[in-house]
Amino acid sequence: MNKTQLKQLSNLCFALGFASIIGSIAIWFFTGGKEADTQAHAERFGIFVGLWAPTFLILSNRFDRYAETGV
C-alpha cells in the first residue's frame, strides 16, 4: 500500500471509531423497549458495538504512523 492509501484507511478507521460510539448510543436508546429482557439485550448489544471504537481508533493511529514512516 502506498502513503495515500494508508492515509485514507487511517481516516476511514477514525470515522468508523466515532460511528461506533454514536451507533452504540443509538442502539441502546432506540432498541430498548419496555420489557426487562429487551432492555437488557439493547444494553449488551450497545456495549458490544461500543467496544469496536477503541479498535478502530488504534488502527487509525497505526495506519497513520505507517503512512508517516513508510514502514
Topology:
Elements: H1 3-30, H2 36-50, H3 52-69
Helix pairs in contact: 1-2, 1-3
Task: Give short descriptive properties of this protein.
71 residues, single chain
Mind explaining what this structure looks like?
The protein is mostly helical. The chain has one domain. 86% of the residues lie in helices and 0% in strands. It has helices at 3-30, 36-50, 52-69. The relative contact order is 0.20. The mean pLDDT is 91. Keywords: Membrane, Transmembrane, Transmembrane helix. The chain crosses the membrane at residues 12-30, 42-59.
Short description:
Keywords: Membrane, Transmembrane, Transmembrane helix. This protein is mainly α. It is built from 3 helices and no strands.
Strand share of the residues?
under 5%
Q: What class do helices, strands and sheet pairing give?
A: mainly alpha
Indicate the low-confidence ranges by residue numbers: none
Alpha carbon gap, first and last residue: 10 Å
Record field, number of beta strands: 0
| Rg over CA atoms | 16 Å
Total count of domains: 1
| Largest β-sheet summary | none
Question: What is the average per-residue confidence, as pLDDT, rounded to a whole number?
Answer: 91
Helix content: over 70%
What string, H for helix and E for strand, traces the elements in order? HHH
What's the shape? Answer: rod-shaped
> What count of helical segments does DSSP give?
3
